[in-house]
Amino acid sequence: MTRPGVAVSDVKVLYAHTQSLGQCRKFVERCLPGVATVASLSNSAAPAEAMADDRPAAAISTWRAAEITGAQVVAREIADNLSNVTRFIVLARHGAPPTGDDKTSFCFGFTTTDRAGTLVGALQELAEAGINMTKVESRPSKTLLGQYIFLVDINGHREEAHVAQALERLRERTGMLKVFGSYPRWRP
Question: pTM, whole model, 2 decimals?
């Protein structure tokens, strides 16, 4: 999107969140070659930043952001993969009650000496409880080289007895476990 009256061929700078710049790389290379890119904190902030720029600027953002800022949409469906989705979270003061069709997100890390089978043993707690793990991702802990934090999503609510028991056993095995929350599963 751009300020009204600015054509794609006039654009000198493009504002977007870094993730979106990567997800729309082919469009940017094809339609905006040589245009400077500026990483915005979010795609919601990008249109306002583009509109405030003195240069002919564009932003990758949402339809709603275009409505709010008065920007004109000059291209749509620009993602390299049109089936790409982004996951957002909502923070609340109180947890969501169980619905019978929930997910739980948590992270864990190890405080013990690294040895073969440590991760497998921890994840085995979920398998033995019959809990389906839908995502596991590792990130450097940034405290010690070679130490990782594991981000996990499972099916089930943390208040369900079998889930609560498995999480407690996982806590005992890992030394560090933080439950982010349980919430109703999204269904398309």
Answer: 0.66
DSSP string, 23-43: HTHHHHHHHSTT-EEEE-S-T
Determine the Cα–Cα distance for residues 69 and 28; give it in Å rounded to an integer. Answer: 22
- The CATH code of the domain that includes 56 is 3.40.190.10
| Active-site annotation holder among 86, 111, 112, 113 | 86
Q: In which domain, by residue range, is 21 found?
A: 8-69
85 found inside a domain:
no
Judged against a pLDDT cut of 80, whether residue 174 lies above it is answered with yes
Q: How many domains does the structure of the chain reveal?
A: 2
Give the 3-state secondary structure of residue 98: coil
Q: Is 86 a catalytic residue?
A: yes
93 pLDDT higher than 90: no
User: Amino acid identity, residue 102?
Assistant: D
Under 8 Å between Cβ of 184 and 96: yes
Q: Known catalytic residue: 118?
A: no
Catalytic option among 2, 27, 88, 150: 88
pLDDT score at 39: 94
178 shares a domain with 118: yes
Contacts of 157 (CB under 8 A, 6+ apart): 98, 99, 102, 104, 163, 182
Phi, psi (degrees; rounded to nearest 5) at 2: -140, 175
